Amino acid sequence: MNGKVSTAVVLFKKRKKKNGKYPAKLRLTHERKQMYYTIDTKDRIYEFSVEEFEKIVSPKPRGVFKEIQLEFSVIEEKANRIIKAIGDFTFDKFKVHFAIKGTNMRNIYYFLDLRINRYNKTGYGNKTTITAKRQLQAFFKKKDFLDFKDITVSKLHEFEYVLRERGLKNSTIASYFGVIQAVFNEAHRENVIPINSIPFGRDKYQIASSSGVKRALKISDIEKIYKYSPKPFTHEQEAHDLWMFTYLCNGINMTDICNLRYRNITPDFIHFIRKKTEHKSSIARPVTIPLTDDIKKIIDRQGNKDKSPDNYIFPFINDNDTRKQQIYKIAWRVRKTNVHMQKIGKKLGIEQNITTYTARHSFATVLKRSGVSIAFISESLGHKDVGITETYLDSFGDEKKKEIAKFLTNF
Q1: CATH 1.10.150-classified regions of the chain
Q2: Where in the chain is the domain with CATH 1.10.443?
Q3: Centroid of chain to Cα 257
Q4: Minimum mean pLDDT among 14-28, 63-77, 275-289: which range?
Q5: Which residues of 343-377 are buried (b: 16+ CB within 10 A; e: fewer)?
Q6: Is the per-residue pLDDT at 279 higher than 90?
Q7: Residue in 119, 117, 165, 115 with CA at minimum distance from that of residue 139
């Protein structure tokens, strides 16, 4: 920690309320700088006259004043736990942690809420955290507090069994446990729990592989979709174009499609960094997609006519949207595309479920069946090890990428 941090609950006399009283606040002092934080909750407003506050902080308070002094002690204890856990102290770090009411850093929900708040604010992170928290609350029957020590290896196995009994898929279960493991690791880094209390790893609980479910379409079915001609200027045409765009553009997901801007396009390629990796410098490498005639036609049909460099290619989100609004719009676009692609599939006699995710898997499978190096496409296409996949992709020259792209429509 850089310098000592002192805490105290004080009467904030700079703001006098209409009733003549002053708010009590938590004061932190660090390197001669002071910051004040509200301690009010939905059930308690801390405001007092000078005389009342003096009775609260006196050596031997009585009655209600003694109870309030104990509450102040709990608030300071919470503050000191946070200060100790965050290591290199900054007022901004403290504010983020202290803002979550009822914080107890032994509570796994505390760390899950940090991730949820981060996701809601920025859109970055794993939205599965929200559902994972709900599943933990339902399984342990603890809504507000769940101690890390209660989550043991045996409990994790029980939790997995219950989820499977509910009919959840391997990939969904694996995503929940991935979130829980990440939170344990974060709590250890914050010095909240010792490393031997983490129930994941060798000779402990190991997350089951989510592989085995085949989502890719047969090449003959992809050909049917490719050659299908929807009625122009309809929702069906838009869905068909977006599905084909995903398939033709390295299995690009809807979030990345919606965030593409015209500056990402060069005469022969589309270059972008995946949203899921752009804040992870170790794996945030550009994806390069050959700009084929099919891709150009889709952009001409569905794209914004204003091709200014900073303008989005597709008119699905805009810079005036909040991050939450963008997340909603993108999710809605996925649902809309999937609904219309299901209808197209029925018209074409395709039995398999058709989604945007199917397009992503089909991209990888078609290249694999065409003899393209497994190192180029990777079985997981960024799901198991994005770094390895993208590093290898980046090692291929532009002409090689153009040559490989031809396999996607070589029916």
Answers
A1: 108-197
A2: 219-409
A3: 17
A4: 275-289
A5: ebbeeeebeeebbbbbbbbbbbbbbbeeeeeeebb
A6: no
A7: 165
**pLDDT tier at 335 (50, 70, 90 boundaries)?**
very high
What's the confidence (pLDDT) of residue 381?
Answer: 46
Query: pLDDT tens digits for 288-319?
Result: 899 999 999 999 999 999 999 999 999 999 99
**pLDDT tens profile 112-158:** 988 888 777 666 666 789 999 999 999 999 988 899 999 999 999 99
Per-residue pLDDT tens over the stretch 390-399: 443 444 566 7
pLDDT, residue 67, reads: 87
Distance in angstroms (rounded) separating the CA atoms of residues 84 and 87: 6
User: Global pTM?
Assistant: 0.60
Distance spanning both ends of the chain, measured CA to CA = 63
Q: CA 64, CA 224: separation in Å to the nearest integer?
A: 77
Is 108-197 a CATH 1.10.150 domain? yes
Q: Which helix (H) or strand (E) holds 18?
A: none
Give the strand pairing for 22-30 and 47-48. Answer: antiparallel
| % pLDDT > 90, the chain | 48
CATH class of the domain comprising 219-409: mainly alpha
